[in-house]
Amino acid sequence: MLFEIYIWIISFISTFVAILWIILNFATKYYDKKLPDLKTFPNITVAVPVWNEEKAVIQTLKSIFSQDYPTNNLEVIVVDDKSKDNTIKVLNNFISKSKFKIKLIKHNQNLGKGGALNTALKEATGEYFWVYDADSVSDKNLLKNMVKYFYDKNNSDVAAVVAITLIKNKGNFIARMQNLEYVMAAFVRKLLGTADTLHITNALSLFRTSILKKIGGFDVGNLTEDFEIAMRLRYNDYRIVMCEHGNFRTQVPTKIKTMWMQRVRWFRGFMYNNLKYKKMILNKNYGLLGMFQIPLEVFVLLCVFFSIGLFGYHIVTLFLDLAFKIYIMKLAFLEFDFPTLLQFILNLNWNLLFPSLVVLFLGLYLYLAAHKYVGEKWKFYIPSLIYIFIYPLFRSMQWLHAFILEFSGAEKKW
Amino acid sequence: MVKVFRKIMLLTAFLIAIFIFLAGAYVGFVLDSYRVDDVGSSIYNTELDAESFVIENEFFDTFGIIDCNLLSRRTKMMGDDLGEIGRTLVRYDNKKLTHGEEYNSLRRKYFLLELKAYTLFKQMDQTCGVKRPNIILFFYDTKNNQESLNQGYVLDGLVGKRDDLVVLSLDKDFNDTAISSLVSYYNITIAPTLIVNFEHKFEGYTYEYLIRENLEERARSIEVLEPTENV
Known about the structure:
The complex is a heterodimer. Chain A is built from 13 helices and 8 strands. Chain A is of the alpha/beta class. Chain A has a domain at about 35-290: Spore Coat Polysaccharide Biosynthesis Protein SpsA, Chain A (Alpha-Beta Complex). In chain A, strands 3-2-1-4-7-6-8-5 form an 8-stranded mixed β-sheet, with helices on both faces. Chain B is α+β, with helices and mostly antiparallel strands. The radius of gyration of chain B is 23 Å and the shape is elongated. The termini of chain B are far apart.
């Protein structure tokens, strides 16, 4: 009975959130998306933190300079975080031949991405600070559109604009599965942006330089400095909006182990930063973000752990029960009469099945809407099935792994 | 986005979610009705079979006919039907959301039907002696019932393997005077308890081999009593 009540609670919350997202999705269609026209363009500092990026860094720089943005207004600062490969050599070679303004700063020791970004921030002269991960490529009009968001009359308190993230390397099975995750994440971020509850930045975010400097730059040593800076901006009453005009593509892990460790790092960062900004939870001063969004995320996290315990117990019990049945009944276990359709329907546990089906259908609708939003063709293929039905189990295990590492004081490393 | 609009969205989403769950509860209610009807109709059919059995017995008594093979087959069929109803009732009972009283009433009807069958089998025991299937009366409980569940699997396994076995299962704590009488007659204090062929009592979880041994002992005694007889 406890199990059923729990499933009902989870299903109700999932249904509520799914409906809320569907409403938000419809609401955004009536939301004025017209961006202001800019006659002059502000100076932008593009910060490119690199670490062992000899293969990707040149493509990244080319992507930056191929932006439909006046190159005179771009200041590119590449910070090498003590690479062990030929990144420096490749960069020097490129810079010597380049006609653009590129500053290369070398760290004497590895400080992590936050440290590299802070180094760039110190040198930044641009009005806006564009974080540009070295494994990313962007649409040509992305920067221009992102900047425009700061000039919207309703966005004077906006400190950061984030772009839609999609994946660059879709050739591999693992990557294709992550593609679905990125598509959904982009869609959800758009919805959070619409509800003014967006509290994450990503690998290609544009910040107001003055605000970044005012709040002390990036948190060095933080496993998810992009999430931390977003939480800090929101903590200081600044807003973050989603740029819906253009996207960028990033390289994702293609091996299970690398992907696993990346997620574990993200989830550790999520736990650490939520604890760091726990004052925001159920705090009316933060509006819907404090009263609804963050508590919901924390609740979902608690549910993940509770589910692992509860489902684990049920699976073990079911397995033991089945093993006992087979041991006792042997082949008689397999002897049963096929039920009629009515009996089959009546035998199903609709108390659990009905809410689960509702959630599944709403989820599928959102899944389709997300693909439409990012302009990706939707295909119902094996990675989709795995992503929907099996990946959540792995995700729960990743959360558990992250929890164990975070609260056992394990070393924070990338 | 305007704050009022956000509040309206939250409220709308909440109300729609409530509506969906009410719809789910309604589906549950309708399915429970179907389940009650389904088990009710099976019980009704078995009740008719029991009546038919009684009438047939009376007919045989009146005309002085004793066909123990036929009675034995009828006993077995009735036992199997009751077993199937019992399993369906347990399955449905686990899934019910509403109609608690109806389910309780169905369970009562089912147990009473089992008692009726048990009485008929006992009468047959007096008429046909050894020429009847083995009867096991299985007393279980529904609280802390893992042992009862396991005993149920053991008995299901045995029924699957043997054609000469009928199992009647009763909730020892069920609130009915007839069941209480039987419980007190056999002095049932713990669950599971098995009464094999009206007299051998096994208390607590009983291993399959012990039951099998008991049944085979009876089979051997049949061979000794009537080695070549055919009816």
